[in-house]
Amino acid sequence: MAEPVRKFIIIAQARSGSTLLRNALHSHDSIICHGEICSRKWINGLVPRTHAHLTKSSRVMIRALLQQRDQDICRFLDHRVFKFDSAAVGFKIVYEDLFSAPFSGGLIQYIRDENVRVFHLVRLNLLASFTSRKRMALFGVSHSDAPEASQRLPSTKIHIDAEELRNYVSSQTIYRNRVDATFERPLTIFYENIKEGFAEILRALQVDVVPMVERLEKLNATPLSEMVENYSEVKNFDIR
Q1: Which of 170, 175, 180, 195 could link 95 by a cystine bridge, Cβ 3.0 to 4.6 Å?
Q2: Is 42 left (phi over 0), alpha (psi -120 to 50) or beta?
Q3: Rounded distance, CA 93 to CA 39, Å?
Q4: Partner residues linked to 6 by β-bridges
Q5: Which tens digits make up the pLDDT trace of 213-222?
Q6: Radius of gyration in angstroms for the set of CA atoms belonging to the chain, rounded to a whole number
Q7: How far apart are CA 157 and CA 206, in angstroms?
Q8: Among positive and negative, which fits the CA dihedral 94, 96, 98, 102?
Q9: Is residue 196 classed exposed, middle or buried when 0-12, 13-18 and 19+ CB atoms within 10 A define those classes?
Q10: How many Cβ atoms from other residues are within 10 Å of residue 142's Cβ?
């Protein structure tokens, strides 16, 4: 009799390397890792059952599944997300979707009831995270795995509103603490140490530990002091 699939979820701060981590896990021979399939607005990165090497399903398929997901999240997870012939299957979700989606309560209960392994992806440098969000909004770069991304980013410095940054840090800290309070013994993985965290996840999922082969270059290696116009006002948040 085949062993049951080991289910997992990556709960992440936005702009914390979750796409990089998802792609690295999905490239492992024994793992299927979906994207943000519980986004409030869309089903992002649902791996098709018939082509498990791909990273997303067609838009036609997603439109047909949206109502099913929103009406019965448990059925959606059982029949569309975890139903793969693989040792481990999981997906990623950002804080805001985990706690604010209409089906949030059902999703959290499912994670608890089904003993879904929780990996908590955290970025310690919240100034870097916030700056990344602002640059994404301004320049249209969504993920660091876009090959052309580094060529699309202008060198223009951006202004960071100190009060907006403080509110962001406060909200992310509240979310982080809420994850730790909601789930029993989540394994915390740090963006700043993601290669080692990748190996920890593989060990926890009881699959072969292989090197993280995804591209690890930063989208923009320029120091924050050269990216933020008013760096002196916010440098206390530049935690390295």
Answers
A1: 175
A2: beta
A3: 7
A4: 88
A5: 765 555 456 7
A6: 18
A7: 45
A8: negative
A9: exposed
A10: 12
